[in-house]
Amino acid sequence: MLAKPIPVPPQGTQLEWRLDPPYSAKHLLVVIGLLALLLWTGHRTEMDRMVAMSVQAVGKLVGLADDSQVVRGLSRVGTAMWPPAISEQEDVARLPGLDRDRLPPLAYIEVQERTEQRLNPQTLKMEASVERTETLVKPVGYLWTVTVKMLETLEIALWGTILSVLLSVPLAYFAARNYTPYRATYTLARGTISLLRSAPELIVALFLVLAYGFGPIAGVLALGLHAAGFLGKFYAEDIENADKKPQEALEAIGAGKLKTLWYGVLPQVLPQYIAYTLYILDRNVRMATVIGLVGAGGIGQELKGRFDMFQYDHVATILIAIFVVVFLLDQFSARLRARLM
Q: What is the pLDDT of residue 341?
């Protein structure tokens, strides 16, 4: 292949060239319009107030401001949350069936004295009286309660993930353009996936609590239905983008669609499928704590109850437990993905 010679102008020719500017007044107007839109929406969402309060909080922390609503609020909550609650105490008078000889492990009965001022009906004077109450103390009672609730949360997330996988596998088959038998099944499967994805877990859980009542059933169904929308989309797109050569080879020797999918596509997409599923499991653990706020079981239900009663030390214990579980699950998922990918 011969290269074309570079044209050289005759000697004495005065070269004049110019480079057009990359931006014009039109681009400047677009940028100004976008900035104006951001300012308008920022004012509507109180971004200016957020910035002012945050700057005031930073000023309070470095000693440049006298007062800050943000610092006051966070300090009040932070003080109430520390130390996190570990033990649990119950009034023995409210435990009529308590067997004093067979207390729970590590538990003991403590006698507490409380001085109160009471009106003496004979002298009509306030007198101090000592009241003794017995309390059943469980040194790690609340920690055990949170552990049991976290286990329930993990179970909800696990079954929600299993349900989403079971639903998404047939959806992915019919939503894959190169495997769905009819155009109508493709449209129906894609529409179902979009519908499941568009309904947030919290909203779905609200309706399912009305149908199934309070408890983990609503949580499992809400997580499973929403996650099936995501997994169905991911699975279908991986099937469509799989390498065509193994599939063409299998089809050439007479393999049907299912055998081609099983032997030609699944080995290619299986590592991604496992990674997607682990991500959904990790997400479901976090979302299971949220849907519990509407009564769908798990640690979220306990969190809402303690928050409503202003027991922030118990809230701190729950938040620490959620963080530990999510961190450990993330480490486990990362190690498993590293082995499989």
A: 64
Q: At what angle do helices 266-291 and 141-175 cross, to 10 degrees?
A: 140
**Residue 29 identity:** L
Would you say 85 and 314 are in contact if contact means Cβ atoms under 8 Å apart? yes
Sign of the C-alpha dihedral, residues 305, 308, 311, 316? positive
Report whether 51 contacts 59 (CB < 8 A).
no
| Nearest alpha carbon to residue 57 among 49, 67, 47 | 67
Give the pLDDT confidence of 188-213 residue by residue, as tens digits.
999 999 999 998 888 999 899 999 98
Between CA 66 and CA 58 the distance in angstroms is: 11
Number of CB atoms found within 10 A of residue 40's CB? 10
Helix 69-81, helix 312-340: angle, nearest 10: 90
Peptide bond preceding 121 in cis form (omega within 30 of 0): no
Give, for 125, the enclosing helix (H) or strand (E). Answer: strand 125-138
In tens, the pLDDT along 90-105 reads 888 888 888 888 888 8
Number of residues that make up the chain: 341
DSSP code of 290? H
Question: Which tokens belong to 286?
Answer: 């976090």
Q: Give the C-alpha distances (Å, rounded to integers) separating 93 from 100, 128, 133, 180, 221.
A: 12, 23, 8, 67, 40
Structure tokens at 243: 């390498």
Q: What's 297's DSSP letter?
A: S
Query: Within the chain, what is the greatest distance between any pair of CA atoms?
Result: 127
Residue 58 near residue 50, CB atoms below 8 Å: no
Strand-strand pairing, 88-91 and 108-120: unpaired
Whole-angstrom distance, CA of residue 17 vs CA of residue 185:
60
